[in-house]
TrEMBL record:
One of its GO terms (molecular function) is metal ion binding. The lineage of its organism: Eukaryota, Viridiplantae, Streptophyta, Embryophyta, Tracheophyta. The keyword Metal-binding applies. Residues 164-302 form the Nudix hydrolase domain. Keywords: Hydrolase, Metal-binding. This is Nudix hydrolase domain-containing protein.
Amino acid sequence: MAAKTESGGGGGREVKKVLNAVNDHYGGVIVHVTEPMEPATFVSSLTSSIAHWKLQGKKGIWIKLPIERVNLVEAAVKITNDILGRSELQEGFWYHHAEPDYLMLVYWIPQSPHTLPTNATHRVGIGAFLINQNRETKSEPPIQAELVFEYRNQEVWTASFISVFYLHIMCGLRQERHGQHGDDHGTVLVVQEKGGQYRGTGLWKLPTGAVDEGEDIFAAAVREVKEETGIDSEFVEVLAFREGHKSFFEKSDLFFLCMLRPLSFDIQKQEQEIEAAKWMPYEEYAAQPFVQKYELLKYMHDICKAKIDGKYSGFSPLPSRSYSLHKSYLYLNSSKAPKRRSKL
């Protein structure tokens, strides 16, 4: 758990324990506390460690405490300036961030304002726009022609006439059912949620959700649609994104409006979160008072409509690698971007 250093003069040597740590990229150290330890022992080792790191010119001190070592948190945050040899008002370590299984504490050694990065500043979410221009649903099979033959001294053309007349009537009924007019843009996948701010409002909205840690935006959009509606889909492009602040526990919010292509049409809604889901005529969705009331939603509607009409191009993911060697995606307008073949 701790290395040993020796100090003192004359015949006596004082053995001090220094916590094991690894260097970060910015002149600091990271301590992973894994073994059980009493708070008093921890404070003693931590004090010796800070003195040692100060002589080495270290700056930021990060301490990662697993949830099993929660007994050490109070000792770290209450360590005093008298012990640390500081004159500033800031005493002890402070919280930086927490995850389900650990808490990260941080401390700044120099007698100057710290330059440590803040905790995560944004939450990332997606909205999924799926348009069904073929109006396919499991409950509504394709039109099938029925031939009716009359043999009561009628001409052969009677069968053809009846068949064409039947198809004409059926197509008219199908169009009326779907609200299919000259400005028809197909049906859009919408949901009503059981929870959240829109619960009980009657609003039909696009499927939305949060991007998980380490998850790509396009993958999150496909996953959320599948989870909420049972619809299989493939990602097409990012149409637009919105940034807002003070959204989720004072964090900022990035919301990506994504277009996806449906690969299935039979809806199986998620019982836990979704009250209802359906394919709704796009004009009916856009005409909802709530959509018309807010400028942001009207902008989103206009962008989606322009995309359907072939008058708008969004951003498609291009796999790439940077200096970190980790796979990443550059989102760009492929219709205007220089052509380059990815090596991934």
